[in-house]
Write a structure and sequence with these properties.
Strand content: 15-25%
Helix content: 25-40%
Number of strands: 14
Radius of gyration: 26 Å
Largest sheet: 6 strands, mixed
Shape: globular
Structural class: alpha/beta
Distance between the termini: 89 Å
Order of helices and strands: HHHEEEEHEHEEEEHEHEHEEEHHH
């Protein structure tokens, strides 16, 4: 018998529970859906970042001046600075000012698999964007344009590719440079013995110690390695440019919501006065670990790319 004046509480028709008790949960779920921005709802990567409260950035250990450890074992570089601007845009998009940034070291061999399997969300280094790699991963707008060359000791008297016939050369595992020299070796019947190194520092050391006569790599990285070596005057970078190498940060493929945020952030940065200062910081001023300036002016190709941002993987457009 219910008391006079008391109103019976409604029960849920299926569970028998009280409907009013369910409303706060329903309201919370609805609020959560609203809280996730529309672009994030269409992006697996942004949703993962939102749910975990963390974005994972892949970085290199010796790709000076793009992504490397300084003398305090801090991850620094031109590409890192650009990616941190992207992180700021993601924080704003997700309304997460306290989003945590996790740094995950990668190598030339591991960087593509770690993006493809979702271990890292953005890879910030010296990675060439090309049509073949775009079948596996996505790329941000290009932030540097370099060329494939070799470094050798001046005493080796190497001036052309044919001068290397029958000699031992090296390149870094998982790079477009290694692929190119391997194919060229067969095509031109050069008789090269080709060694692979786990990173650029190890490859350069092989030339320093005489294990290899030449190291094939992107010229900007070679200039950086020479400048930071014990005896910069002992080395020369070849005059022949074999391939064009546009750099971009890697990101998951076919995630248009994520791409929209990343491309928007990079295009805004590239077309702002801040970009010239950022370039100058890493290529014309003294940088860690030794306080050496690379003195590499911005090329005409890069100026065109920054003025008209693109993530095109066709090398022909960068010539």
């Amino acid at each position: 018998v219910r008391e006079v004046g008391k109103t019976p509480r409604a029960t849920h028709p299926f569970t028998g529970g009280h409907a009013m008790r369910k409303l706060p949960l329903v309201a919370a779920l609805a609020a959560a859906a609203v809280a996730l921005p529309a672009v994030a709802q269409d992006s697996p990567t942004l949703k993962k970042i939102k749910d975990s409260g963390t974005i994972t950035i892949g970085h290199r250990d010796s790709s000076i001046p793009f992504s490397y450890y300084d003398d305090k074992q801090q991850v620094v570089g031109y590409a890192i600075d650009i990616c941190m601007r992207v992180v700021d845009a993601i924080k704003a998009e997700l309304r997460m000012p306290n989003l945590q940034v996790k740094l995950n070291p990668v190598t030339s061999a591991t960087r593509i698999p770690l993006i493809a399997n979702g271990t890292i969300d953005l890879e910030c280094g010296s990675t060439t964007n090309n049509l073949d790699r775009q079948k596996q991963v996505g790329f941000t707008n290009t932030y540097f344009v370099t060329a494939n060359r070799y470094v050798a000791k001046k005493s080796s008297n190497i001036n052309t590719l044919t001068d290397l016939k029958g000699k031992t050369v090296v390149s870094t595992s998982g790079t477009t440079n290694l692929k190119w020299i391997t194919e060229e070796n067969a095509k031109q019947n050069l008789g090269l013995s080709i060694l692979t190194a786990k990173d650029h520092a190890e490859a350069f050391l092989m030339v320093e110690t005489g294990r290899a006569v030449a190291f094939f790599m992107d010229d900007i990285l070679l200039y950086s390695l020479v400048a930071n070596s014990k005896s910069p005057g002992d080395f020369m970078v070849g005059n022949e440019a074999y391939t064009v190498e546009p750099y971009g940060a890697m990101m998951p493929r076919d995630d248009e919501g994520f791409r929209k945020v990343v491309d928007g952030a990079t295009a805004k940065l590239y077309q702002s006065p801040e970009m010239a200062a950022l370039y100058d910081k890493w290529f014309n001023k003294p940088i860690p670990p030794k306080g050496i300036a690379l003195n590499v002016p911005m090329s005409a190709q890069l100026k065109r790319v920054l003025a008209n941002p693109t993530s095109n993987g066709d090398p022909a457009i960068y010539k």
